[in-house]
Write a structure and sequence with these properties.
heterodimer; A: alpha/beta; Rossmann fold; Arc Repressor Mutant, subunit A; 2 domains; five-stranded parallel sheet; four-stranded antiparallel sheet; 11 strands; 18% strand; globular; B: alpha+beta; Beta-Lactamase; Helix Hairpins; five-stranded antiparallel sheet; five-stranded mixed sheet
Chain lengths: 249, 493
């Protein structure tokens, strides 16, 4: 897939008034009325909305190359559930995913994030809050990551921020957008501890809305990809009570 | 619940525990047995030793008397004291002789005066006799024999001091043995009761685990044959309990889903309508306003209800994180308060952090402000202040205040009494405040209501401070958090 190429290319309706192409949002929700209301709200904000009632349809939308810029997935779906849908999308794309859950259980949220979602909202959500999260994720997807444009080397890790490529020992690693930005953020401050709040602000673009769990789960996912032994990390280190830091290992 | 003030815990009368009682019983038993054994041993030993001593004394006295009889018959002129001193007496014995009314003694210390009168009279009447008596602080044994055919009476006095000494050493040893036995008995009792109560302690530990949410914990059934029924029935009780909790949790979760889905449509559509408010006629706008207020109220009620049902089902999972309290209050107010309620953060409380669940603490603030708005004529001031190791949130309202007798009842569910009287708006039953109480208790805090200086009610939430500003507190790393989260969830399912 060549979605990575879009990162710098697409514009959203909010930040760039001259942009004419509206961001496309794929809404995967089995409840017809919720879907319709979300469509109304998002269209009012200027997005183009594609609706699907099942995960299978959503994946078909990816095959048709009507590629969305962001996906909103309800976790409780008939047939293939939201978690599986997330994983299936992640196999082919790094598109930002927001999961929607009707439960406030920690379990669902974490499982959804583990499945590859970038963020979550709980029902009943306030349209304004959902809008803010969507804008933050889209803005981030457009922005050129980090300040340093030259390659960064940390230990056996090699980052090319502009190309969106990470290699470990010469081998390319496939990271999601969020994981990549997390790594870039940590890598541009080598050896410095970044708090969860700082990471939420810089990677997700949230000031208060963010949930520290977002950081924790994504750090864990990042470790499974960049660490030889994720249970005993030597690159992405937890500094107890403070946050995270990257070291050469 | 710690949120209801003014109810000191009833003092329980302390009774001796089972272990202490078993130990005490063992101790008393050991003490009794060892004392009886010691007394018996002492008595038997003492009488047998004394008897043999007396027999020896009698034999010696009789043989000396026999020797004296011969000596006195053959030689009347012999110096009697010298004669007495030649008698074969054991080291500690002294001889006393009455011959023709005269008294003679082998030792200066022991003479006629040493002997008890009744005893002497008995011998002088012609009977052999013996008596134990005390002379100048020493136990003595005297044996007296009339010498046949002569007007002579021979006495021998034995010092029993060494015997007495031996016996007192024996008594001491026996007492020490009794004491040691008692201590051993106490230890044995302690050990036995500990051993016997071990399964109970194990049961208690498991019960505590289960109470704390680790519902998977079970007693080991394969152990002592006598205790197997206890373990089995305990485990099946926990099985039933777990099934029930899971059913409740599933029900709450299903209900939550069923309620939240339409609410999502409602609130999202409301948002769309409100964004297009200007397209509506004035009457349409009025209707929208009513609709909006009611939907928000309904949404709040459903959220509270679901939250309360989670407490009831025992499925509480917390994600604790360090939160700057004043910031949290400000944020919750910005979301909740449509009118402008002044927030005063006292300087000492500005950077104070609490370890809390963000969502629940925001709910606390929102519900208190909502309560003030719905029942107290609106909040007039929200204040954050520091009290030693605690931080306080004060929400003052402009209502008539709450009578002292209703001040704990307002935190009960649907407590209509006091609230009904205070009702100013059209909305609200008292779920909000009871949820405040539950949330605050979950954070090991307290909530109460008091009179605001100048009238009105003042709701006070007090939470423990986790740390003074600066870097956030220990909260575990990502994996640690998740493990905890998962445990809680597995426990609740």
């Amino acid at each position: 897939m060549t979605l990575d190429a879009r990162w710098g290319a697409d514009g959203g309706p909010q930040s760039d008034k001259t942009e004419t192409v509206a961001s496309r949002i794929l809404v995967v929700e089995d409840d017809e009325r919720v879907r319709a209301s979300v469509r109304l709200a998002l269209e009012d904000e200027g997005y183009e909305v594609i609706e699907t009632a099942t995960a299978e349809e959503a994946l078909a939308a990816f095959e048709r190359r009507a590629l969305p810029h962001l996906v909103l997935i309800d976790l409780m779906l008939p047939g293939m559930d939201g978690f599986e849908c997330c994983r299936a999308i992640r196999r082919v794309s790094t598109v930002p995913i927001i999961i929607v859950t009707a439960r406030t259980d920690t379990h669902d949220v974490v499982a959804g994030l583990e499945a590859g979602a970038d963020d979550y909202v709980t029902k009943p959500f306030v349209a304004k809050e959902l809008g803010a999260r969507i804008r933050a994720l889209l803005r981030r997807a457009r922005a050129v990551p980090g300040q340093p444009t030259q390659a960064i080397n940390v230990g056996d890790l090699e980052l090319e921020p502009e190309a969106g490529v990470v290699r470990r020992g010469g081998q390319e690693i496939h990271l999601t957008r969020t994981e990549f930005l997390l790594l870039c953020e940590l890598a541009s401050n080598p050896g410095r501890v970044l708090s969860r709040e700082q990471l939420l602000e810089r990677v997700w673009g949230y000031d208060y809305f963010g949930d520290n769990r977002l950081v924790d789960v994504h750090i864990r996912r990042l470790r499974t990809k960049v660490e030889p032994d994720p249970t005993n990390p030597n690159h992405v280190l937890t500094v107890r009570g403070l946050g995270y830091k990257l070291q050469a290992g | 619940m710690s949120s209801v003030p003014g109810s000191p815990p009833a003092r329980r009368r302390r009774r001796l525990g089972l272990r202490s009682r078993v130990t005490a019983a063992f101790t008393v038993l050991a003490l009794g047995l060892s004392v009886i054994m010691a007394l018996a041993t002492y008595t038997v030993t003492r009488s047998s030793v004394v008897h043999s001593e007396e027999a020896a004394a009698r034999r010696q006295t009789f043989s000396n008397a026999y020797f004296l009889r011969g000596a006195l018959r053959n030689n009347h002129n012999q110096q009697l004291p010298e004669l007495l001193s030649t008698l074969g007496t054991s080291g500690t014995a002294s001889s006393v002789l009455s011959y023709r009314g005269q008294w003679y003694a082998s030792s200066l210390a022991v003479g006629r005066d040493a002997l008890p009168d009744t005893f002497v009279d008995e011998v002088l009447r012609g009977h052999a006799a013996q008596q134990i008596f005390t002379f100048s602080g020493h136990p003595e044994l005297a044996v007296g024999v009339p010498i046949a055919g002569l007007d002579a009476y021979y006495f021998e006095v034995f010092d029993l001091g060494s015997l007495d000494h031996t016996l007192s050493i024996l008594a001491l040893v026996l007492a020490a043995a009794a004491a040691a036995t008692t201590v051993l008995g106490a230890l044995a009792g302690r050990w036995a009761s500990r051993r016997a109560l071990m399964p109970l302690r194990e049961t208690a530990r498991v019960a505590t685990d289960i109470t704390e949410g680790r519902l998977e914990t079970r007693l080991e059934a394969g152990g002592d044959v006598d205790l197997a029924p206890l373990a089995t029935s305990f485990n099946s009780m926990v099985d039933a309990l777990q099934a029930r909790i899971q059913r409740d949790a599933r029900f709450a979760s299903d209900v939550a889903h069923e309620l939240r889905t339409p609410l999502t449509t409602l609130s999202t559509t409301l948002g769309v309508l409100e964004a297009r408010r200007h397209e509506l006629s004035p009457r349409g706008q009025q209707a929208l306003e009513l609709l909006g207020a009611e939907i928000r109220q309904f949404e709040r009620l459903v959220q509270d209800l679901l939250e309360i049902s989670r407490y009831d089902a025992g499925v509480i999972e917390q994600s604790l994180e360090p939160l700057q309290f004043s910031e949290l209050v400000a944020h919750a107010m910005a979301v909740e308060a449509d009118d402008q309620v002044p927030l005063v953060v006292e300087p000492a409380a500005a950077s104070v952090q609490v370890l809390g669940d963000k969502r629940r603490l925001e709910r606390v603030v929102a519900n208190l402000i909502g309560n003030a708005r719905d029942h107290g004529g609106g909040a007039v001031e929200v204040r954050v202040q520091r009290h030693d190791a605690r931080v306080r949130l004060l929400v003052d309202d402009a209502g008539p205040g709450i009578p002292a007798e209703d001040r704990t009842r307002v935190f009960e569910r649907f407590s209509r009494g006091p609230l009904a009287r205070r009702r100013l708006g059209t909305e609200g039953v008292g779920l909000g405040l009871s949820l405040v109480a539950e949330h605050v208790a979950l954070h090991r805090g307290q909530v109460w209501v008091e009179e605001r200086p100048g009238g009105g009610a003042r709701f006070v939430v007090e939470l423990p401070v986790s740390r003074e500003g600066g870097p956030p507190v220990e909260e575990g790393d990502a994996t640690g958090w998740d493990r905890k989260g998962r445990d809680e969830v597995t426990a609740s399912r």
